[in-house]
Amino acid sequence: METRIKSGFPKPNVLTATKYPLNIAAGPHEPSTVSQALASPKWKQAMITEYEGLLSNGTWSLVPPPASTNVVGNKWVFETKFNPDGSAQCHKARLVTKRYHQTLGIDFYETFSSVIKPTTVRIVWLLQFIFLRTFNNLM
After folding, report:
1. What would the pLDDT profile of 106-116 be if each residue is shown by its tens digit?
2. Is residue 3 part of a domain?
3. pLDDT tens readout for residues 77-123
4. How many other CB atoms sit within 10 Å of the CB of residue 73?
5. Residue 82 covered by a domain
6. Residue 46 CB burial class (10 angstroms; 0-12, 13-18, ≥19)
7. Which of 11, 30, 36, 100 has its CA 20 to 30 A from that of 47?
């Protein structure tokens, strides 16, 4: 068996193997603090869009904190989305909680995610159809 090294074709470098390599030497594109983000109109608009989206979805409501609970903080996470040619497509800002401040059994008791994939729904429908069909055939 002739391997890639023996035939003279080494494994390609990951950074140069892409058709449109990203310009990594351009420096950081994401701000590291909120004050840096607010200084740029693009990042400020991304933050406003995220905040308005959270309010319109009813994700949370502002209430006074109870005296005996731990208040969980939040932080902004910034990310630049790129086109295949390396140009900036859009600026994304997300407001996330600092989960490392929470303790299971004290600050929360269970987690819940209402995300369900369409494939899961189709499988459940298929199983229900098969079960009902075989059950009706037995009767």
Report:
1. 766 776 666 77
2. no
3. 999 888 877 777 889 999 988 877 777 777 667 766 667 788 888 89
4. 9
5. yes
6. buried
7. 100
